[in-house]
Design a protein that fits this description.
Blueprint lengths: L3 E6 L1 H5 L8 H16 L3 E6 L7 H4 L6 H25 L4 E5 L8 E2 L2 H9 L3 E5 L9 H11 L4 E5 L5 E2 L11 E2 L1 E2 L1 H6 L8 H9 L4 E4 L6 H6 L6 E3 L1
The chain binds uridine-5'-diphosphate.
């Protein structure tokens, strides 16, 4: 069982049954799933995406510069982080938001010391603003943060239960691959589950990444238990 993990949740997943925004019922359910892990003694860092509100790469253009678009994307992650923390705390899952963009009225600034201290107290640490710089996604930010906080694994929640040998939406005979090497994950253009920049960081520092479906009861606990769920990139 891993003792400290980083769970990456995309904005799209938080939207659940809605087109955008947050599905608060689903968020409460995710909180209970995370609680199973905390109760088992594992410290949890959550990196939230913002794609349910804004993505820099899609927003840039027509007068909006890339840096501004990415800033908007980071603000989107902030909205998710504070909502998620409220929902978790309201359902007896102790959570703290630490932000990598300056927003004193809204959340405490991320520092390494504060994050470690909160984790040791058993709080779920939800990080807002990615890594706080443009031209990055929250996948890459997740890898960077996991290294900084000495997480043993990055658990990336996706719609599908891992990496497939061909697109499962198109081919009924698509088979899930249980394990992929860092090298293949970085070089294989067909593997699109995570940014290449994020996978490059994982490879450079040999930090394993598990791609799995978090929206099935017990799956986050299974991923933390390293029981072979999803696809492990290592
Ligand atoms: N972003 C950024 N720097 C970071 C993290 C995120 O500029 O360190 C911006 C970027 O524009 C990104 C947006 O925030 O598109 C939202 O994050 P992401 O697209 O990763 O969200 P997800 O797809 O996981 O919901």
């Amino acid at each position: 069982m891993y003792r400290r993990v980083l769970l990456k949740l995309s904005g799209e997943q938080l939207a659940g049954k809605f087109e955008g925004g947050i599905d608060s019922e689903l968020a409460a359910w995710i909180g209970q799933e995370i609680k199973k892990v905390v109760v088992a003694g594992t410290q949890v860092v959550v990196m939230v995406g913002g794609g349910n509100y804004a993505r820099g790469a899609q927003l840039a253009g027509h007068g909006i510069g890339r840096v501004t678009a990415d800033n908007i994307g980071m603000l989107a992650t902030m909205m998710n982080a504070v909502a998620l923390a409220d929902i978790f705390n309201g359902h007896d899952v102790s959570a703290r938001v630490l932000t990598n963009i300056k927003a004193d009225q809204i959340a405490d600034q991320f520092t390494h010391r504060r994050a470690i201290s909160d984790l040791k107290k058993g709080h779920v640490v939800i990080v807002a603003g990615g890594i706080g710089r443009p031209y990055l996604t929250t996948d890459t930010a997740a890898l960077s943060l996991a290294l900084e906080l000495e997480c043993e694994v990055v658990l990336k929640a996706t719609k599908v239960n891992g990496v497939y040998d061909k697109d499962p939406a198109q081919f009924v005979d698509a088979k899930k691959v249980d394990a992929v090497s860092f090298q293949d994950a970085v070089s294989d253009e067909a593997i699109k589950v995570m940014d290449k920049a994020a996978l490059g960081l994982a490879m450079e520092y040999t930090l394993p990444v598990v791609i799995f479906d978090a929206m099935v009861a017990g799956n986050i606990l299974r991923a933390v238990s390293d029981d072979g769920i999803g696809t492990k990139i290592s």
